[in-house]
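SEQUENCE-TO-STRUCTURE ENTRY
===========================
Question of interest: how does this chain fold, as expressed in backbone structure tokens?
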Amino acid sequence: MKPNTAQLVRGALQRSAWLLVILVAGVATFNWQRQQDGPLYTASASVILSPTDLAAAVAGSGYVDPDRVDDTEGALAESPELYEWASRRAGGALGSGSELRSATSVTPTAVRA
């Protein structure tokens, strides 16, 4: 009696069961390891924004309160519009503005000349 296709497939799977188990375990281990590695990319940047009037700077009379500079930088960095703009500019590749904001941290640092 000649075996049918289903019997042939079942026999092949039985003979290669250990190979399939090792393959599945290897894929699962690889995926678990990649999850443990954490983010693939992180970055940091320092940005200095100055509210100095260009005309006053050229004329040499332009005192800028350093606390005001820090407040301006912090307000701009925490602005929801900034994250929405960045999301639109990236074509949504970075996620929505709120997703981008939650994945970003802003830490003010005092830079004095």
Notes: The chain has two domains: 5-37, 41-113. Helices lie at 5-15, 17-37, 54-59, 66-77, 80-89, 97-102.
